[in-house]
Structure prediction request, 155 residues.
Amino acid sequence: MHTWRRALPASARMRHFLLVTLLMVIIMAAEASKKKERGKEAKGGAAECADWKYGRCVPTSGDCGAGVREATCNDQTKKHKCKVPCNWKKDFGADCKYKFGRWAECDTSTGTKSRSGTLKKALFDADCQVTIKVSKPCSPKTKTKPAKKGRGKEN
Prediction:
């Protein structure tokens, strides 16, 4: 037996074994990822087209929830999964995001109050209005904020 080589304790051998196994798993995962990327490039089509046009998200059932969005580019068409939020505003669509101001006072002649919003973001190149105005019925009761309770001794 060689004098320069000493037997490693069992715990050190186990650590070395786990380290080598971990390195092998990392290398295998990296190779699989490379193959997957090469497979996507080999299919062509999707990588070639750079000017995709996206349609609106159309719910599969009802007027909100999971749905499908169609994308077209030249003669290619794809369908992407999408989701329409159930609290979306049908007037301006789920792909147009607006920043709204405060609600105006109730208009007693119409029984509604309104507010305006400016376009913050248009998802999927949606055709959105720059500014919009939305309205809703006035609430029958006026809400008052309850007085905040202080901490500590009361006077």
User: Anything to note?
Assistant: The two ends are 89 Å apart (CA to CA). The chain is about 20% helix and 30% strand.
